Every structure is written in structure tokens, then in C-alpha cells.
């Protein structure tokens, strides 16, 4: 399905320096949606590469540094859309971190630090965006099958955060529906991103390739395949979809074990 042209809409995307966030900014550019590209100040990935791809796709964007652990920074992130274009229509809470830690090593600081990004950071993005949406709008929070569907050993804090996103979105969707603001969750399976390619905290390249053999479609997803689903959920094509969880995993979670 071709992307629609919606030349007036403006989106904020956290975690857009690479991976799904970068692919989404480019997908929005192709659809005529302008975007504020949120990037963590110490992210090793260059957000200007995202901006260059957006411009190459014929779109407009601004890069904005934001630490989603800090409410004032998230407020400024959402406000940037109003300052630049005078409106905010779409918010995508995509920023996240992944840290491996066995339960015996999972101290309070490690637990709190990850949830501040992967769960409370999502709340901050949704809250700040809702306060600045003048009319109908759409939001998406990115969860994971690790927590959203499955458990994952040595990642209890990550799983708890990603599971928490589901409950957060359901409640916010109900609360914001009278304003015409829709809120949904995307639950990615294995995706070829810098995070999943990390061999220390995640699967790494070899592990990701092995995991692909258990997926009915036979491979991990590309970031663009997640971006297209998010773009759909924030478009008028999904005008009656809210409070839902869309699993994008190549059939992994519906496959009957051998």
C-alpha cells in the first residue's frame, strides 16, 4: 500500500538516530509528515544521518537532543514541534535501552535506570505530546515480544518495562479517546537494529541469524517493516484503531512448537 500524502502533519519520534526510529522518520518523509528527530545526547549513532535520509526522501525534519529520563527535556522535545511548525499531530515513543542482568545482579539502581527509559520515558513522551495536541492525533509506543509476549532470562527489568507499556497504552487510549487521540502499541519481534546486534546485552549477529530459523517467515525483520506498521497506525487509514497491540514478528509467537 502506498504511503498517503499528509503534508500538514507533524510528528515527534524519540530514539530516531538509528533503527526503527530512523526508518520511521524516512517513512514519514515519504508521506509528507514532518518530524522532530529525538536523539539521546550520548547515542553513538549520528542523527544527522537520519536527517540526511529524510531530506533525500523529500521530507523536512529537525534534530533535537532529549533524555527521556528528564521530564523537562521531554516537554521541550514536544514543544519543538510547535516552535518549528506550529502543531503536533503524531508522537512515537521509540527510545529504549537494553541491558543484560541476572536476577542476583539486578540491583535497585539497574532496575530503576532501565525503567526510567523504557517505561517512564514512554509515559513522558505520551504525556507531553497529549498536552500539546490541539486536535485529533495519534500515538504509538514501541514494546517488544520480550515482556510484551514472552519472558527473557537475565532481562527481567527489560521485560517488566515492555509489559508495562501495554497497560500504560490501554489506559491512555481510553483517557484520550474523547479528544480524538488514538494510542496503540507495536510489539516487534526480532528486528535487525543496533540494539539486537549487540552481542553483550542482546543476541548479536550470529544469535539473530539463528533466531531467524525459528521464525515462520524465515528471517528477522528490517526496521522499515516496523516503520510501515507504525506509519499505518498513525494515519487516517487506522482511524478506528486505538488501545491495541500489534505484534510484528513474522509469525514467531503463533508458531506451534515442534
Task: Describe it.
The protein has 258 residues and is α/β, with parallel strands linked by helices. Helices cover 41% and strands 14% of the residues. It contains 9 helices and 7 strands, in the order βαβαβαβααβααβααβ. It has helices at 19-31, 47-56, 71-85, 108-118, 120-130, 145-148, 156-176, 204-212, 223-233, and strands at residues 10-13, 34-39, 61-65, 90-93, 137-142, 181-188, 245-248. It has a 7-stranded parallel β-sheet with strand order 3-2-1-4-5-6-7, with helices on both faces. Strand 1, helix 1 (19-31) and strand 2 (34-39) form a beta-alpha-beta unit. Helix 3 runs parallel beside helix 5 (120-130) and helix 4 (108-118) packs parallel to helix 7. The radius of gyration is 17 Å and the shape is globular.
Layout: helices, strands, pairs:
Layout: E1 10-13, H1 19-31, E2 34-39, H2 47-56, E3 61-65, H3 71-85, E4 90-93, H4 108-118, H5 120-130, E5 137-142, H6 145-148, H7 156-176, E6 181-188, H8 204-212, H9 223-233, E7 245-248
Parallel strand pairs: 1-2, 1-4, 2-3, 4-5, 5-6, 6-7
Helix pairs in contact: 1-2, 1-9, 3-5, 4-7, 5-7
What string, H for helix and E for strand, traces the elements in order?
A: EHEHEHEHHEHHEHHE
What proportion strand? 5-15%
Tally the beta strands: 7
Which spans have pLDDT < 50 for at least 5 consecutive residues?
A: none
Average of pLDDT? 95
Distance between termini? 34 Å
- Helix fraction, binned, reads 40-55%
Quaternary state of this entry equals single chain
Q: Quickly give the structural class.
A: alpha/beta
Strand order of the largest sheet: 3-2-1-4-5-6-7
Computed over alpha carbons, the radius of gyration is 17 Å
Sheet of most strands: 7 strands, parallel
